[in-house]
Write a structure and sequence with these properties.
Length: 112
């Protein structure tokens, strides 16, 4: 007889439940395994040669770190960032195609 843990929590938030330590360990292993699988899948989907570091973006666009960081945030009206960033593990990267679009927009804006 399986009980949905979420339903139990909603109906009896102060309930005391006996659980075997081995069941907790198995549940944790399952969650960790699933997280690793999702991480690996997302890494495989990214073509790392199509990603640029912040410094590469700054050099390519001829902008400062401050400008790059400002362009990587949504604007005051909630519009998406001009230069969206991608987290790859602990690192921040930028898609080359996004950077090239910014270059075209900025060149057009300033008549280059």
């Amino acid at each position: 007889m399986g009980i949905d843990i979420i339903t139990l929590y909603k109906e009896c938030p102060d309930a005391v439940v006996k659980v075997k330590v081995s069941d907790i360990i198995e549940a944790n292993r399952s969650l960790i395994s699933e997280a690793i699988d999702q991480y690996e899948k997302s890494r495989q989907e990214l073509d790392m040669t199509e990603l640029m570091t912040g410094q590469e973006v700054e050099e390519f666009l001829g902008i400062s770190k401050t400008t790059r960081e400002r362009w990587s945030k949504p604007d005051a009206f909630g519009q998406p960032p001009l230069l969206p960033k991608i987290k790859v593990g602990w690192q921040v990267r930028y898609k080359r195609s996004d950077v090239e679009q910014v270059k075209v927009k900025e060149d057009f804006k300033y008549g280059k």
